[in-house]
Design brief:
Strand content: 35-45%
Largest sheet: 4 strands, antiparallel
Order of helices and strands: EEHEE
Pfam families: YhzD (PF14120)
Shape: globular
Protein name: YhzD family protein
Radius of gyration: 11 Å
Distance between the termini: 28 Å
Strand order of the largest sheet: 2-1-3-4
InterPro entries: YhzD
Length: 61
């Protein structure tokens, strides 16, 4: 399992979500990240999901 980091921000730059979770691979992490964003109603907020290697898997500004 690999550890991924999901963050979301308001337009002011204030962090409104900071989640760390594990997944088997990048594809599963993207799916899980999208689920978390949807559950919290943050799909339209600025957000990013980074892999353990620092690769951006999801990004929305």
């Amino acid at each position: 399992m690999r550890t991924y980091k999901l963050t979301a921000f308001e337009q002011t730059g204030k962090m409104i979500a900071d989640e760390t979770f594990t997944a088997e691979n990048d594809d599963q992490a993207k799916e899980k990240g999208q689920e978390i964003l949807k559950e919290k109603g943050l799909e339209d907020q600025t957000h990013r999901l980074a892999s353990p290697a620092g690769k951006l898997l999801l990004f929305h500004s």
